[in-house]
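Weekly structure sync, notes
Attendees: PL (lead), two postdocs, one rotation student
Agenda item 3: pending single-chain targets
PL asked that the sequence for the first pending target be pasted directly into the notes so everyone works from the same version. It is reproduced below exactly as submitted, 383 residues in total.
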Amino acid sequence: MGFCSVFFCLFCLSLLNASAQTSAPPAAIKIKFDAEQSATAAIQGLSNRATGRALMPDDPVRIASISKTFVALAVMRLVEQNTLQLDADISTYLGWNLRHPGYPNVPITLRMLLSHQAGLRDEINYALPMDARLETELKNEKTWDSDHRPGEYFTYANLNFPIIAAVMEAATGLRFDKIMKQQVFDPLKLDACFNWTLCSDQKITAAVTLYRANGDVARDDLRGTRETCPVVPASDGSCDMARYRLGQTGSIFSPQGGLRISAVDLAKVGQMFLRNDDTFLSRKSITTMTSPVWQYDGKNGDSADGYFCAYGLAVHILAAPGRPASCKDDPFGDGEMRFGHSGEAYALKSGLWINPARGRGTAFYRTQVPENDPSGHCIYFCE
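Predicted structure, written out during the meeting:
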């Protein structure tokens, strides 16, 4: 065979490979688990189309708002260590006075922040640059609900979580990403991280790239190379971590949604919730997290058209008993109560849901989900 023939065959093969990658289904996985065992129930697609790497169960992905539940786990560990208190005025940790401008005598607490009842709104950019200061940003009145007293009204707001991260840093003297590794990832033996800062080289190589519905890259096209600036940079675009001040910003590691974790490790956390032991957290703390702190009564919160009807400490509770008939918070369609969290960002939808009555759960994500997808928060992978 001549050189031209060989070249033509190689060219055809490259076209076939490119076509296969372009037509590959969206990356998606579902893990089922009980307290002791887990199994991959479905998996498809590529972790990265450019490399053609098939998605594997232990490949990490930006899991979106399920991140909030992990932050709550760290908070509860710090509460058990007497480093934090759920009902203390967080101003005592921050070193500056954080108050709703309309209710200056009402202390803001971690319990309010974790249950989205602090009166905050996502009316400013919650992905604040490294050199921003929460103390300054939160003086903007658009940030606050002018109609409701803190602690009395639910509105889901990502902005709560940079504040929680800042409180954690101020109380411990550690960076948020290092707190999460120390308090959650290492004790549970998870190779996970926020914004890729502390994940292993193996996980960097296995990173799942997020693509939009049209195939454009949305996030994390790493291909084995760490990002030059894995955090939210300063307002001038610089990324000098020496300029970061603990307890002042709280947003650069994306505590509201920046957790990178595999579906397998997500299921491990679900198993922790199901196990009846005190190895990681006391059952009292687990109950505190997973019991309703807020429950919709028809007028005491923004239910997002019935999706939020009961919420604990960064834990969403589905199909809770006694909820109004207007609630649409049963994506599994069986009327059984579950707790966990959903995630939605950069064309990914995800879920970690635990059914305590049946002692089982599911962890899943799917990429390239179109905007306004009619299948909702359960997206193809409910039980």
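Discussion points:
- The chain has ten helices and 15 strands.
- The first helix runs from residue 3 to 22.
Action: rotation student to compare against the earlier draft before next sync.
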